[in-house]
Amino acid sequence: MGTPVSTVREILAILGPDHISTGAVIRQVVDGSERVFLMQAEDGTTWQLPRMRRIPGETLESTLVRGIRHAAGLEALPIRYLGHLHHVSEVYGETIIEQTHYYLADCDCPSDEQPPGMFIPFSEALQRLEASPLVKAEGRILQMATVLSPTER
């Protein structure tokens, strides 16, 4: 038994017709080494950059800050817009085209904090993203962030 169609329509109405999300390359420097944050995808087998859906009326930056705080318990500060990707998502059995806008963000959090994800070196994060066709395109976003990252120059 699935979600009732009326509920799906209500959920999609809340998301809005544009289905916009934000994502982040969240950096953290530990002992002079820069790391990036990845979260486990809903399928439980792959890793991805953190993403969250925009609530109508929210700015992209406020979506990012709210979403990261909610999903990972981290305080992220958007630094620079990196670009956007289009992808197909499924919401309660309905296929939608979603546009995700990505930001480079800094995280001012203790290195011993254990959020529901992990901070790993950029190179390892890129390998993990490349391992999944679903999030492979996020590797391009991560590569752009690496170029812009001050400790990677």
Structural class: alpha+beta
General shape: globular
Instruction: Give the helices and strands as they follow along the chain.
Output: HEEEEHEEEHH
Helix residue percentage: 25-40%
- Tell me the CATH topology: Nucleoside Triphosphate Pyrophosphohydrolase
Taking the sheet with the most strands, its summary is: 7 strands, mixed
The CATH architecture assignment turns out to be Alpha-Beta Complex
In percent terms, what proportion of residues is strand? 35-45%
What is the rounded Rg? 16 Å
Number of strands: 7
Mean of all residue-level pLDDT scores: 76
The number of domains is 1
CATH class: Alpha Beta
Task: Note poorly predicted spans.
Answer: 1-5
Under CATH, the homologous superfamily reads Nucleoside Triphosphate Pyrophosphohydrolase
**End-to-end CA span:** 53 Å
Put simply, the count of helices is 4
Task: Give a written overview of the molecule.
The protein is α+β, with helices and mostly antiparallel strands. The protein has one domain (5-152): Nucleoside Triphosphate Pyrophosphohydrolase. The chain has helices at 5-15, 60-72, 122-130, 138-148; strands spanning 20-30, 33-40, 47-48, 51-53, 76-91, 94-107, 118-121. Strands 1, 2, 3, 4, 5, 6 and 7 form a 7-stranded mixed sheet that branches. Strand 1 and strand 2 form a beta hairpin. Helix 3 runs antiparallel to helix 4 (138-148). The radius of gyration is 16 Å and the shape is globular.
